[in-house]
Inverse folding.
């Protein structure tokens, strides 16, 4: 069974440019999450989809970040325009769980974003 | 705000020794999980302990949970070079789907 896949694995862009990260969750997983780790700090929650609906986007830093999950399958996270502080590793995770507070998350290998 | 906080930040041990790391959290939880991240890879789930459990084992891993102190520990016995990684605790609140992570403990196992 294929795991969570993320693309690209590494992206280097100039400040002010746009980047789109993609995540393909495990097939059948309704829950999809985006997390970010900046410079060795804690892994911070960005947002959570249940199928195509945004369940919780309380962790999104600002309106330069836009996440979508059309059709409830893959998800994209767009940063426009990118700033230096957006550099970090963006992780996507999915889970099949239906009950809050239970179950493990399955993570992708992350997309490393470097903004110069 | 950060829910889980691991201690120590970094740990270096000799192969064959045990490694212990701790996690403290702030709010009530449904479960606490530990994940491992090898360099440049994704996070891999290691073990989950529920709030009504006090201790759990999985292979060379032993996890304890003290809900009165809001803390957990992860013990890796007889460490191997392959255990070199960052270890994160993550808490699952009872009323929410998302997990909250700490900054991790970086473990280096020397051959």
């Amino acid at each position: 069974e294929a795991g969570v896949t993320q693309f690209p694995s590494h992206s280097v862009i100039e400040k002010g440019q746009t980047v789109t990260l993609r995540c393909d969750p495990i097939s059948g997983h309704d829950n999809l999450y985006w997390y970010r780790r900046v410079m060795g700090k804690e892994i911070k929650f960005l947002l959570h989809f249940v199928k195509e609906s945004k369940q919780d986007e309380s962790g999104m830093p600002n309106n330069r970040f836009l996440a979508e999950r059309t059709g409830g399958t893959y998800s994209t996270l767009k940063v426009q325009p990118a700033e230096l502080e957006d550099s970090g590793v963006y992780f996507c995770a999915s889970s099949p769980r239906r009950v809050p507070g239970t179950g493990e998350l399955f993570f992708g290998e992350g997309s490393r974003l470097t903004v110069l | 705000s950060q829910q889980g906080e691991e201690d120590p930040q970094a740990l270096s041990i000799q192969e064959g020794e045990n490694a212990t790391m701790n996690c403290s959290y702030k709010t009530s939880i449904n479960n606490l999980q530990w994940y491992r991240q090898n360099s440049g890879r994704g996070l891999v789930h290691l073990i989950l302990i529920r709030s009504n459990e006090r201790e759990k084992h999985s292979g060379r891993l032993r996890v304890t949970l003290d809900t009165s102190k809001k803390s957990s520990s992860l013990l890796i016995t007889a460490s191997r070079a392959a255990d070199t990684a960052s270890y994160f605790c993550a808490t699952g609140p009872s009323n929410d789907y998302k997990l909250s992570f700490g900054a991790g403990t970086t473990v280096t196992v020397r051959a």
Summary: The radius of gyration of chain A is 13 Å. Chain A is about 0% helix and 50% strand.
